[in-house]
Amino acid sequence: AEDDVYEIGNAGQLYWYAQQLNEENAEIYVKLIKDITIPENAPNWDPINANYVYLDGNFKTISGLKCIGGEAEYVGLFGYEGWWYEISNLHITDSYFEGKSYVGAIVAYLSNGGNVTNCYVTNTTVKGDGNVGALVGGIGSGYVINCYADTDTLVGYYDANQENIENSYHL
């Protein structure tokens, strides 16, 4: 429930959170309480794929995240949105994400109406063959609001007619 917020303050807790969502499809409300630097020897990040995600970055930073997906699709901190993603107030920097398509540092693909709000990505490499954006790889249904990326592409794919991107920009 929203009243029970799990606080994350280090890389181990972040990896535990990902495991809970990926293996148990748990519904966990999360708030970052410290900046998190992922150690260089940490395992390759396995993108979070869950039905419901509620993450308040609390204006903290995650740095050093590496997600090398090779030929995989839906590569990012969060992969393919299940039913609802609410991700806010998060900064990702000094990180690396690579996959085949739908690659984004925060979310690979927003598909069912979730929101990415007040998030930004800096000094991060995001690579793939298609639908690649520094912040979000693609939007089917959902919104990117008040976000920023210091690259030439904020969102890789979106329907310009749906006005999914509000008050957000890139270099």
What is the fold's blueprint, element by element?
Blueprint lengths: L4 E4 L2 H14 L4 E4 L3 E2 L14 E12 L2 E3 L4 E3 L2 E3 L3 E10 L2 E3 L2 E4 L2 E4 L3 E4 L2 E3 L2 E3 L2 E4 L2 E4 L2 E4 L2 E2 L5 E3 L7 E2 L2 E2 L1
Parallel strand pairs: 1-2, 2-4, 3-4, 4-8, 5-9, 6-10, 7-11, 8-12, 8-13, 9-14, 10-15, 11-16, 12-17, 13-18, 16-19, 17-20, 18-21
The helicity comes to: under 10%
Taken as a percent bin, the fraction of beta residues is: over 45%
SS class: mainly beta
Low-confidence runs (pLDDT<50, min 5 residues)? none
Separation of termini? Answer: 38 Å
The number of distinct helices, counting runs of at least 4 residues, comes to 1
Shape: globular
The beta-strand count equals 21
Mind describing the biggest β-sheet?
11 strands, parallel
Computed CA radius of gyration, to the nearest angstrom? 14 Å
SSE sequence, one letter per element: EHEEEEEEEEEEEEEEEEEEEE
Indicate the mean pLDDT: 91
Task: Explain what you see.
The protein is globular, with a radius of gyration of 14 Å. The model has no long low-confidence stretch (mean pLDDT 91). The strands form 4 sheets. Strands 1, 2, 3, 4, 8, 12, 13, 17, 18, 20 and 21 form an 11-stranded parallel sheet that branches. A 4-stranded parallel sheet has the order 7-11-16-19, with no helix packed on it. It is mainly beta. The chain has one helix at residues 11-24, and strands at residues 5-8, 29-32, 36-37, 52-63, 66-68, 73-75, 78-80, 84-93, 96-98, 101-104, 107-110, 114-117, 120-122, 125-127, 130-133, 136-139, 142-145, 148-149, 155-157, 165-166, 169-170. The chain contains 1 helix and 21 strands.
